[in-house]
Amino acid sequence: MSLMNFTSIDFETANKNRDSACSVAVVVIENGRMVDSYNSLIRPPEMFFEEGNIKIHGITPQMVENAPTFVDIWKDLRMYLDNRIVIAHNAFFDMGVLRSCIWKYNLAKPQFKTACTVQIARKVWPQLPNHKLNTLGEFFQIQFKHHDALDDAKVCAKIPLVAGRTVGVDNMDSLLRKIGLEAKIFKS
Fold first, then answer.
1. Rounded distance between C-alpha atoms, residue 21 and residue 49, angstroms
2. Could you give the CA distance from residue 170 to residue 180 in angstroms, rounded to a whole number?
3. Strand 6-13 relative to strand 21-30: parallel, antiparallel, unpaired?
4. How far is CA 39 from CA 149, 150, 152, 165, 178, in A?
5. 175 CB neighbour count, 10 Å cutoff
């Protein structure tokens, strides 16, 4: 039985500004199984969408015109993060978006530790040509819509689960220790 317990998170942004989150999803893993998820479009503070971002995720200003703001979803989203290990694929980006949105609206800061699944994948599968999420999805034989926040969060969640089985451990702390990484306290 797997004792893997963590939350995976994925953000999509409207433009290059880190506080321009336009979509977020989380997946909650308890004892190695997905037990809950949360997914929402977000109306960014400025309704400026760069074409390149729209091409990546397909989210347009019209789609988020009546969506909740980050403030509106924060209470719900925070429940999935506090006192957990929160992972993201390229955590530097997603934690930066979260931090910027918290700062933008002067919100209560969550308490959790974070780890990056890109780093986990690099340690466990160094033979892969790269460690992008779509490459890992192919490696795991998962079909998913890349840059859909919920699909990305689900594939991200799969990484430590498969990595744990690959290196022979059944919980996140043991996995990180065995491959020479550590979860870091989220600084907001």
1. 11
2. 16
3. antiparallel
4. 7, 6, 11, 28, 32
5. 25
Please state the length of the chain: 188
| Residue 106, phi-psi category: left (phi > 0), alpha (psi -120 to 50), beta (remainder) | left
Record the tokens describing residue 60, joined without a space: 């347009």
The per-residue pLDDT for range 52-101, each reduced to its tens digit, is 999 999 999 999 999 999 999 999 999 999 999 999 999 999 999 999 99
Alpha carbon distances (Å) from 131 to 76, 118, 120, 159, 179:
31, 6, 9, 11, 16
User: What does the buried/exposed string (b/e) look like for 130-144 if buried means 16 or more CB atoms within 10 Å of the residue's CB?
Assistant: ebebeebbebeeeeb
Query: Which pLDDT does position 188 carry in this prediction?
Result: 82
* Residues 122-158: tens digit of each pLDDT: 999 999 999 999 999 999 999 999 999 999 999 999 9
Radius of gyration, CA atoms only, the chain: 16
Q: Structure pTM?
A: 0.97
Going by C-beta distance under 8 Å and a sequence separation of 6 or more, which residues neighbour residue 46? 14, 15, 17, 20
